[in-house]
Amino acid sequence: MIEVKNLVKRYGDHLAVDDLNFTVEDGQIYGFLGPNGAGKTTTMNIITGCLAATSGEVLIDGHDIYEEPKAAKRLIGYLPEIPPLYPDMTPYEYLLFVGELKGIPKRVLKSEVQSVMERVQITDVKNRLNKNLSKGYKQRVGIAQAMLGDPPIIILDEPTVGLDPVQIIEIREVIKSLAEGHTVIFSSHILSEVSEICTRIMIISDGKLVTEGSTEELEEKFKGGTVIDISVKGSNEAVAGVLSGLEGVESFEVTDDDGSGTVSAKIKCAEGADITEALSFALIEQRCLILKMDTEKTSLESVFVRLVGGNASDYEDAAAGYVSQSGDGETDVGPYYDEEGVSAEDLLNNAVKSVSDEHAPFDMKDDEAADEITDVDTADNDETGEKEAENDDSDL
């Protein structure tokens, strides 16, 4: 369980996180939803111990992230928005390296690495260099390193940003599979993604938590009056007359459809009012043939827009626009700075430093540690040869 109490983060005069309070229960998939600049990444960096808060408290299963960092961080697997991969390592080498840092015993390290590679389906690229992997495979390797050591809490910062539609579906399935035995938190500003994957949703705006609950709870909590769209054969006057005299109609708008004798109307009903039956009989009495009647229900999109303002499609467009297309048609993510102006390189370095500082398990001299980490053992020489052959082929 994660408890965040009165969390504040300031950058000079800018208040990035404003007295944030929430609790994450075990065994759920939490969606951390909000527009760009809402404070999602800052909050995740603080929860994982990669960034110091100005004030407040973060407890990971009762361990204070500042007072007991080693105990707290051993319970967390973290994937920053930019996966912290070493480009000249292969996924297999990189995961062995991370496993050593996390203190996984050598007798089980290889089997652990093999297990997570199979779960995220990267065994077929385990001997390729990370720099030669597609964006989707890089994300999978990043998720694999978060899973190593089987931490009970997995935190993923916008894991589907920059992926193509097929890759997004694949990563979503990986995230769903993590729910078996883990608590998962992942941030996004893609509404459809959050509603599809998450069991609980937290909406943050301007550094504040504005609401939380399941999709159904939020839709029920913020539901207003029903909106009905109708299309009928008849005149403007007849339809407007029916709607004007109908109980439960809060407002309406009637428009002609290209002079064909078809009239459309959008009707906003009073909260709790069900006018569909009365509306149907009233239109029939006026000899207006009903061609279409659709009811719009409260959605996560409408809840999001009501709470943070703007148009939800703007956030979907922004997410899609984050991916840049180079002249040769390759999809890439351009130079990245988070919402507080911290570069991707600095975020990567902070994440790696945090892991190495807090998870180094061995009490030995630096040269001995280096020998232990690099000495995977001679049985891997065959795999290394295969890897080099693959790299040579790819260079051709």
Q: Which helices and strands appear, and what pairs or packs with what?
A:
Layout (H helix, E strand, L loop, with lengths): L1 E10 L2 E11 L4 E5 L6 H8 L7 E6 L2 E2 L4 H5 L2 E4 L11 H11 L4 H15 L14 H13 L5 E5 L7 H14 L4 E6 L2 H7 L2 E6 L2 E6 L1 H7 L5 E7 L2 H9 L4 E9 L4 E8 L6 H10 L3 E8 L3 H9 L3 H10 L1 E3 L5 E3 L10 H16 L6 H9 L6 H15 L1
Parallel strand pairs: 3-8, 3-9, 6-7, 7-8
Antiparallel strand pairs: 1-2, 1-4, 4-5, 9-10, 11-13, 11-14, 12-13, 15-16
Helix pairs in contact: 3-4, 4-5
Low-confidence stretches: 311-345, 351-381
Number of strands: 16
Mean pLDDT across every amino acid position: 78
Structural class of the secondary elements?
alpha/beta
Q: Give the CA-based shape.
A: elongated
Task: Please supply descriptive tags for the structure shown above.
396 residues, alpha/beta
What do you see in this structure?
- The protein has 396 residues and is an alpha/beta fold.
- It is built from 15 helices and 16 strands.
- It has helices spanning 40-47, 69-73, 91-101, 106-120, 135-147, 165-178, 191-197, 215-221, 236-244, 276-285, 300-308, 312-321, 344-359, 366-374, 381-395, and strands at residues 2-11, 14-24, 29-33, 55-60, 63-64, 76-79, 153-157, 183-188, 200-205, 208-213, 227-233, 249-257, 262-269, 289-296, 323-325, 331-333.
- A six-stranded mixed β-sheet has the order 6-7-8-3-9-10, sandwiched between helices.
- It is elongated and about 80 Å long.
- The two termini are 50 Å apart.
- 35% of the residues are buried.
